[in-house]
Amino acid sequence: MQTTEATLGALERRIEMAVSLAEIDRGVNERLKRMSRTVKMSGFRPGKVPFKIVEQTYGPQIRSEVLGDAVERSFGEKVREQNLRVAGYPRIEPKSESAEGQIEFSATFEVYPEVAVGDLSSYEMQRPTLIVGDAEVDKTLDVLRKQRAVFSPATQPSVEGDRVVIDFTGRKDGEVFEGGQATDFAVVVGSGQMLAEFDAQLRGVSEGDAKTFDLTFPVEYHAQNLAGQAVQFEIVVKKVEAASLPEIDAEFARSLGVADGDVAKMRGEIRGNLEREVKRRVRTALRDRAFEILDQAAKFDVPKALIESESKRMAEAAREDMVKRGMDAKKIPVEPSWFVDQAAKRIKLGLVVADIVSKNGLAPKPEQIRKHIEELAQSYEQPQELVKWYYANPERLSNVEDIAVEDNVIEWLSTQVQLSDKAVSFDELMNNQQTA
To answer: Quick one: 218 and 80 in the same domain?
Structure first.
């Protein structure tokens, strides 16, 4: 077998291969002889089928297998010889003409890029800081009380905290837009459930009121067809209900899972949960910024084969999610092309992270993984059961290992960039989002 290599682009390569027909013939003959010793065929005893019949029946299939093995072996030897890291699968094609006594093929494929992360010293990364105190506990208790509010008919126009039940219709250019109509829709005024402009229209209303108002959706609104668009809403107020909040007492503590009703213990548990949530949010902010920096600093081409594969995987995941939500995926076809940019970024970051971990010895240690799992288990009534649950399944354990890898990369990156602390408020860190 002979091979030659050609460079077609930054990552694309082509290997030309020539396989000896004599070698193929020998391989086919050897396999057919082995097969003839055990092959079963109607009218003959096992192992007694004439070789010619075996050859006529199985020869084409065996030749195809032997040829495929020879080409695969030749390709593998060349790749190892050149120390190439193949990305995806090669496209192997026979040539229209071959030299006498040979069959010639070409294998076109991509290789993994040389990962290059530029100078990181000019990048800035801010670490949010927040100490959980009584004020944060009180604010959380206020939220928990509102979640357990009891509503009754209001005797005055609506104020913040009241629940308003409305019918509404939204029109863009005079036409009702998708998702712009609802009946018996309940909104707690001031809860952030609606856009601020919409919420403002629900203050000071009484049962039976009707009003029409203009609204402009934010440019970053999640529905692209409405982002930045001016629309008009009509609303009819069907109910206004005032909220009655529970007292912070033993009964309230028991409703939150504190069996003995100890209010001080309840506050301690809330503080612990908040501290864990703050830690998680800080980590998320650092991870997002770290990945943004690495994406900007790393300059290399990403193999198209990997992007195509990841795009297909993401499209399939989207289809599965639609099915889980009760939607008919056949009526809403999901195309891999929708995910190309996201897939390219994900593949690129994966290659960068893997390179950083390898070059800097950042693979997580068993004790680090154990610590992560134990931290996750702290908020559960039976922490050890959750620990066992993670260790009982390799896939679940792998997810925690991925988190540990990210933490190691974030810690490493913080020593390479300009890191500073930034005090943030409780609301800023928790980043309460408006949903409509």
So the answer is: no
